[in-house]
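Explain this record to help learners:
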Amino acid sequence: MRQYSELKNKYADAILFFRLGDFYEMFLDDAVVASKILNITLTARNKESNVPLCGVPHHSAQIYLKRLLDAGFKVAICEQLEDPAKAKGIVKRDVVRVLTPGTIADIDVLDPRENNYLMAVTLTNSAAGVSFADISTGEFFTAELAGGETELIEEIRRVSPKELLVSAGFETSPLIKKIKDGSHDLMITIQDPARFTLKSAKGLLLEHFQISNLHSFGIENMPLAVSAAGAVLGYLIDTQKGNIKNINSPRTYTNSDSMIIDEATRRNLEIFSNISRGSREESLIEIIDLTSTPMGARELKKWLLFPLQDRHKITERQDAIEEICLKPLERRGIIEILCSINDIERLLSRTHLGSVTPRELVSLRESLQNCMELKKSLRDFSSPFMSRLKEDMADHSDLIDYLKNAIEDSPPQTIKDCGVIKQGFNKELDELRSISREGEKWMVQLEVKERSRTGIGSLKVRYNRVFGYYIDVTRANLHLVPQDYIRKQSLANSERFITQELKEFEEKIVNANERIIQLESTLFDEIRKKITEFSAPLKYLAGAVANIDVIASCAAVAVKRNYCRPRFTDRNEIVIKDGRHPVIESHIQKNGFVPNDAKIDTEENQILIITGPNMAGKSTVIRQVGLIVLLAHTGSFVPAAEVSMGIVDRIFARVGAMDELARGRSTFMVEMNETAYILRHATERSLILLDEIGRGTATFDGISIAWAVAEYIHEKIGAKTLFATHYHELTELAITKPRIKNFTISVREWNEKIIFLRKLVPGGASRSFGIQVGKLAGLPLEVVERAKEILANLEKGEFDSAGKPRIAKNTKEGGQTASQMTFFSGRDLEVIEELKKIAPEAITPIEALQILNSLKNKLKD
């Protein structure tokens, strides 16, 4: 317990998994907390001390570790550092690594399709530094972001780390609350401010990567990025006890390298999860992810998170996809091979970390062999992108042969179970195994010999783990026992003996078995280290396989769903012919989806006001345009007959209605926050998708806000915009603004019923058909009829004497200032002004009562 307490004091913020034999034990407060989370029995060390205790078997610890990490705890793993059988006194123990949500490398615990990032951030008033790494794959990224707090929050949500490192004192910042609001499962870890200093961070990076300067990383003049990267690296060194040779050199990126898609847009376009259920089902990635390897699945997600802005890079990806689309036999062969390749990235990282198992090395060997077959299957592909990937796939025949000769084809799960190293790999091991195998044969021969020598027909030579080798003689035959027999144990019906010959043989066998275990462990460690010598080319190989997998997946989707290759031009426009929503079309009957054209530019068709009733398909049309533009910028083919566009710098989507009451934001407040963000960050090259702006408040307020937003985008921003609305009054914007055009989703009214045609056509809807939709939904007939009557009363002329829409009046053009009822009436404001003039300390109580009575009377009036 003293040993436990000393270690626990060093790792007070973690639950200590204390190795005792075949169990990890937890004591005191750790045991109380862990027993509840893990649903295991809480007991005590002994009745006298009443020390709370619980434990889990070491061979199944991963299950329990995952539960604790998911619950937001850190776990310090304490192992026995010496053989208990040989230890003198207390067995030496120490913490060999600390597990946190951001430092997990175990394949069985992690989602194979997701990265598991640890991130560190630094912030000034005008800029931010971010760095994130995945210890399970070795990836390491760093960047500096202009704009400070807002951009930092968006980057954290884009990367979606499992753990965030911040400097002490930062945890009290209001920014932390904003970060947590958007990432409920994110662990915030407080670090010593010294870890974030530029000097400390730079020194650590130079020392770890054995370089003289940071120019090769591209961050020499990026102090905030350097500070964040140093914090990540230092934390990994601490938690992994310095064993992080698998971490790649940091890769620098900037926001200008990729299209920015903020959290609200990712949610509203349902890129990674369905907005109503929060699951992967019915999301974009579910439809387009036909990858065959975990590496490919993770790479595809990066393509969607970081869409390209470089036309040349986009074209290279498109060429590769087109090439594989045109070779169906080769494509099927490539996909078949990819299905037999395991997660090389994570297997390699586990090899570096020393946690790889024998079976995982066999999996790595088989994967490398299949990679060589994959390279052969690519020999007829000549696009620049595929050619570079082939170059990254070095020939690893020597390593494959080495592993074939070193590891059994079907080894046990752990190195502690003998039989991992293949026969013929090590001469000493072969000799020791020969001795061990001869033991049973020798026992049979000894038994025959001793029966003949002693005349005892029932004599047996046996072995057990407690007493080792012995000769068993029944009591009836004890008088025949030779003098050289040495009594070892007495039983009720027999005696057990040992001879000098048997004792020497036992020492030989036992020593051989112990030596086999030691030698296999040593050889396995040498094999593991040998693999790490190939670390750099193996990482290139894994990256190439991941990209080939994504290219093959995109091609398979394009062929299966009849996607087209989008064409990029220098024009600031988006032209789509027969565009489709990739998710919706996959969930309806074949040929049941109605495709639509769209043309948006900055010259004549900058803002398309789209009207039409609920259920007609307005949201579908604007979402499908956003998804087509996104997919095009990843290099993928898109669901349409034909597409041409200029580079889009950002996509903004304000679609649907939802509240965040726990964060003190109503539906309308969320809507206004997202709209404000769009208006502040959109540029002329952006794509804005707005659906039902202003619907969360009173009708006149909503129309006013929607109208003003559309005008602002038209006059101040110039961004290409699709604006879906039920406010058919907004169609009058086209009368006064040259680049605003009206479109509607076609419907037909027949016998007071609506027929939805799902087609986007020029023109504006004069009616919202809300009452008819209500009727379809099952409103009582009396309600429907009364609604029609009220609607007739409300409808009236909406043009002034000059023939302009009344809603378009502008005080700058000589109109009158619009007025709206405020929270206070004019008399209320008068009373408030009088109250402001009163000096309470200068009046008597009688005067105060007189003033109060006077004010009360004014309010009555």
